[in-house]
């Protein structure tokens, strides 16, 4: 009999990861099932492992349909799309892929910031459409050097961003749950006071209930007419309706967004605005990051099923 563990794959990963998973596990490809709940009723009972990504995570109803589940390997660092408390309660182990994507996610934040401030995408269109030859120089843009940048969430990605922004000669400040020891950047106790102090606000915090719609209309108003918002973490952290109105009314200067509240849906109003640069949740989407993330998914699953310690475990809340 086939004694390989049964693994539910919730979203596809790079081909080499898929090949290794197909080889080492009896796999179930949930994203290919037209009726996912019927599929889980038929096959859920034997599934011991899950491989999923940070954005899709593991929905409560899927987790509930997997009574034998023991291990969840996340292809990403975001933990907002999986119930860690319930994982702890059921004794399910969880792994993620920290560190390997940090610099690439920070680079995407920097790329979006530069693109918005210097109107890189608009300028590209200006050249391609022949407007340069027809109408002359494009409208002037904004200098970043010497301006103030505020980082919401000074974790691994936030710190990598802070280093990049310092290299642009920006003044960097941050907010987080509490002031962090040993950081050279100015601390603000909350996001509203940070927004009042800075020209650019960059969201690098974890998603989930504790940060939901934290960037609301007051914060956007405090950031102001010349202000720029960048988000490379989770769309849930920004009140998207408030963002659209602030951008439309000119109350906010611009935005660079890699993530959205209802991906892959994007508010149509954003598509009409020249002061916005959009990306399809691609901050960790370099071949290099995705390869290393894929390797960590494989290594964590392998370690778990061999009874060895996980290379990159997620710390779960204490089970009550
Ligand atoms: C996704 C992410 O996991 O790390 C995260 O939390 O959101 C991303 O890296 C990635 O898009 C994989 O699909």
TrEMBL record:
Keywords: NAD, NADP, Oxidoreductase
SUPFAM superfamilies assigned: Formate/glycerate dehydrogenase catalytic domain-like (SSF52283), NAD(P)-binding Rossmann-fold domains (SSF51735)
CDD domains (alphabetical): HPPR
An example Gene Ontology CC term for this record: cytosol
Domain D-isomer specific 2-hydroxyacid dehydrogenase NAD-binding: 110-283
GO molecular function, one term: hydroxypyruvate reductase [NAD(P)H] activity
InterPro entries: D-isomer_2-hydroxyacid_DH, D-isomer_2_OHA_DH_cat_dom, D-isomer_DH_NAD-bd, NAD(P)-bd_dom_sf
Span of domain D-isomer specific 2-hydroxyacid dehydrogenase catalytic: 13-314
Family: Belongs to the D-isomer specific 2-hydroxyacid dehydrogenase family.
Matching PANTHER family: 2-HYDROXYACID DEHYDROGENASE YGL185C-RELATED (PTHR10996:SF178), 2-HYDROXYACID DEHYDROGENASE-RELATED (PTHR10996)
Name of protein: D-3-phosphoglycerate dehydrogenase
The species this protein was found in: Deinococcus marmoris
Biological classification of the source: Bacteria, Thermotogati, Deinococcota, Deinococci, Deinococcales
């Amino acid at each position: 009999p086939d004694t390989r563990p049964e693994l539910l794959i919730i979203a596809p990963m790079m081909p080499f990861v898929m090949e290794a998973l197909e080889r080492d596990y009896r796999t179930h490809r949930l994203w290919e099932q037209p009726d996912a709940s019927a599929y889980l009723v038929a096959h859920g009972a034997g599934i011991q492992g899950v491989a999923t990504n940070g954005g899709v995570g593991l929905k409560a109803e899927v987790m509930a349909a997997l009574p034998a589940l023991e291990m969840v390997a996340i292809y990403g660092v975001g933990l907002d799309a999986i119930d860690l408390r319930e994982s702890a309660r059921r004794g399910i182990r969880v792994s993620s892929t920290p560190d390997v994507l940090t610099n690439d996610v920070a680079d995407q934040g920097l790329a979006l910031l530069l693109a918005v401030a210097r109107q890189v995408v608009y300028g590209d269109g200006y050249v391609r459409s022949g407007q340069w030859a027809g109408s002359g120089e494009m409208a002037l843009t904004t200098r970043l050097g010497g301006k103030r940048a505020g980082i919401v969430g000074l974790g691994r990605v936030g710190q990598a961003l802070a280093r990049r922004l310092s290299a642009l000669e920006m003044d960097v400040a941050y907010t987080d749950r509490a002031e962090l020891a040993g950081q050279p950047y100015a601390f603000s106790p909350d996001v509203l006071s940070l927004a009042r102090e800075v020209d650019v606000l960059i969201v690098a915090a974890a998603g989930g209930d504790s940060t939901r719609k934290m960037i609301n209309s007051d914060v956007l108003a405090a950031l102001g007419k010349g202000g720029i918002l960048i988000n490379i973490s989770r769309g849930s952290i920004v009140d998207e309706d408030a963002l659209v109105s602030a951008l439309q009314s000119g109350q906010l200067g611009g935005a660079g967004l890699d993530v959205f509240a209802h991906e892959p849906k994007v508010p149509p109003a954003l598509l009409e605005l020249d002061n916005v640069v959009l990306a399809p949740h691609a901050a960790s989407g370099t071949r290099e990051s995705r390869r290393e993330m894929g390797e960590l998914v494989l290594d964590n699953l392998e370690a778990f099923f061999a009874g060895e310690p996980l290379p990159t475990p997620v710390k779960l809340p204490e089970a009550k």
